[in-house]
Amino acid sequence: MPPTSAPSIAHSIAPSISADEATFFGNLAADWWNPRGSSAMLHKITPLRAGFIRDVAVERFGLDHRSRSALAGLKALDIGCGAGLVTETLARMGAEVTGIDAAPENIAAASAHATAGGLAIDYRAVSAEALAATGERFDIVTCLEVVEHVADRDSFFASLATMVAPGGIAILSTPNRTARSWAVLIGGAEMIMRSIPRGAHAWQRFMTPAELREALTNAGLRVTGETGLTWRPGQGFRLGPDNSINYFLTAVPA
Predict the structure, then answer these.
(1) Any bridge partners for residue 251, and if so which?
(2) In what helix (H) or strand (E) does residue 250 lie, and over which residues does it extend?
């Protein structure tokens, strides 16, 4: 596994990157690992995300579900990794992991946290387009709560698709564009509970499952599954068929 790399000075300019979005989330970097801070909701859903990714990978690659290092021998890419919540989880499951983000501040925070935890993760402040141009391929490509922040989606999805190795799998999650997602994520989490930073989401940028399926298909991937990630009062977050708030799509090379 490669050593944790030093963060780049600046991310590459690319069609998929919104400078405003990169700046917004880069300003949150120092607080990313605080479970009661600006990324509180991400901390709450990360165990569900990790379990889902593990289950999908175990099934896709015929791995031992009992192993603590079930992803050993696989190369994984976490696109839009932030300060590394999911990236570190992939590394702890045994994968050889690369994490990329548009904000150099996030990569610096992610690198420091990984080093402190003794994890060797290849962190890079680069765009999806720049990494795709290197020709690197990965068995697992994760892209979680990212597509709603992307500027040029066609460029982004084309780059993502080329980085999924033959036989590999892409795992994406994003909020659905529904009245309920606005009520829970923006009205509730941003405006009332403040478990998501105010202004983190633009509801009109959310993608419906049909829209995301079409985008992935156009990029050369075949969607293989959909799972909802929902929230219920008194129950918290759950995986299941309800995709009215958030959902996962899995896809493989067509």
Answers:
(1) 170, 223
(2) strand 246-253
Backbone angles phi, psi at 154, to 5 degrees: -60, -45
Ranking 12-26, 82-96, 165-179, 191-205 by mean pLDDT, the lowest is 191-205
Write the DSSP string, 24-56. Answer: HHHTTGGGTT-TTTTTHHHHHHHHHHHHHHHHH
Question: What's the domain range around 119?
Answer: 19-175+208-227+246-253
Residue at 183 is within a domain: no
Domains identified in the chain, total number:
1
Backbone φ, ψ for residue 168 (5° rounding):
-85, -170
* 124-181 confidence digits (pLDDT tens): 999 999 999 999 999 999 999 999 999 999 999 999 999 999 999 999 999 999 998 8
In a domain, 180, yes or no: no
User: Rounded distance, CA 160 to CA 216, Å?
Assistant: 9
CA 78 – CA 182 distance, rounded (Å): 26
Terminal Cα-to-Cα distance of the chain (whole angstroms):
29
For 124, which DSSP code? E
- pLDDT tens digits, 192-247: 676 677 767 778 889 999 999 999 999 999 999 999 999 887 778 899 999 999 99
CATH number reported for the structural domain that contains residue 157 in this entry: 3.40.50.150
Helix 19-26 crosses helix 104-116 at what angle (to 10 degrees)?
40
Q: Is 35 a domain residue?
A: yes
Residue 150 in domain? yes
Q: Is 237 left (phi over 0), alpha (psi -120 to 50) or beta?
A: beta
